[in-house]
Amino acid sequence: MSNAESPVTDAVVEFILGTETESIPEDVKVISRRCFVDGSGLMVAGSTDHSGRIVQAHIKEFGGEPEARIVGTNQTVSAQSAALANGIAAHAMDYDDTQLSNYPDRIYGLLTHPTTPVLAASLAVAELLGSTGEELLAAFMIGFEVECKVAECIKPDHYINGFHTTGTVGAIGAAAAAARLMDLDEAQLRFCLGIVCSESAGLRANFGTMTKPFHAGRAAENGVVAARLAAGGFTSDPTIFDGQWGFMQIMGGGCDPDYLIGKLGNPWAAVDPGVSIKPYPSGSLSHPSMDAMRDLILEHDIKPDQLKKVRLGTTTRVLQPLRYDDPQNELEAKFSMKYSLGILLLNGGNGGIAQYRDDVVASEEVKAILDKVEPYVDDEIEAMGYDLIRSKLTIEMEDGTVHEKFTDTSRGTPKRPMDREELFEKFTECCSLVYEKDQIARAEALLYKVDTLESIYALIEVLGEKEDA
Question: What average pLDDT does this structure show over 128-139?
Answer without folding.
Answer: 97
